Amino acid sequence: MPAPRITPLPADERDERVQELLAGAGLGRPDGEPLNLFSTLARHPRLFKRWMQFGGTLLLGGDLPARDRELLILRTGWLTRSEYEWGQHVIIGKASGLTDEEIERVTRGPEADGWSDFDAVLLRSADELHEAARISDETWAALAERYDTTQLIEVPMLVGQYHLVGFTLNSLGIERDPGVGGFPA
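Structure (tokenized):
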């Protein structure tokens, strides 16, 4: 998209409530500004506040291991063609233990050579949710061999949350933040 459809809310237009919401978001750019996603969604403060509570629980307070969570998010970002989300979660994924090779391999999906059996199951669950809006019985059974009930609930909630984010980023035309890469060449 050549230009944002909805631009980030400029600092001089942020009232006290919006400033508090943005400060509570936690994640920001090195220049001290909030991420473009946050400052754009701040144009709808009531929705932004509720979404941050939900998304923050999944990202920062969930029960899935961080590496597994990031594999699911990266695959969802790839499937929704959300370059913004992909770039942000490459950074977070590396901090969560993913290698450059694994991150590149996410683009090739669960059938790519090199995945452990369980990593392939995680990617397959994201693919099935994207394609069929449901995790198959076979994939569910494989997830249930390792995950407890709360983790099983989180898998479709996490993938669904990042579909929502990808659809929003793409539709609003939110630009990547400075210094954040996009899809691999």
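The chain has a mean pLDDT of 95. Residues 22 and 34 are 7 Å apart (CA to CA).
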